[in-house]
Amino acid sequence: MVYRIYVEKKKELANEAKGLLSDIRTxxxxxxxxDVRIINRYDVDNIEKDLFDYCVGTVFSEPQLDNAAxxxxxxxCRG
Length: 79
Known about the structure:
Layout: E1 3-9, H1 15-26, E2 39-44, H2 49-60, E3 66-69
Antiparallel strand pairs: 1-2, 1-3
């Protein structure tokens, strides 16, 4: 079975997304863009569910810094 997890930095720690937003607005001149989010998707195969669940908070994310969810809706994403 393939397991999937979505991981995003918490808003106050999303420096890479803030930098990308700045680049889009200044370098590309697209001022209408007001927010950028970077969401990493991890797909894992050939692993037991218990081990995957453990890895979510230790390998794929850091609970103090990241939000992790099984669906994009879990991260409050549209579409």
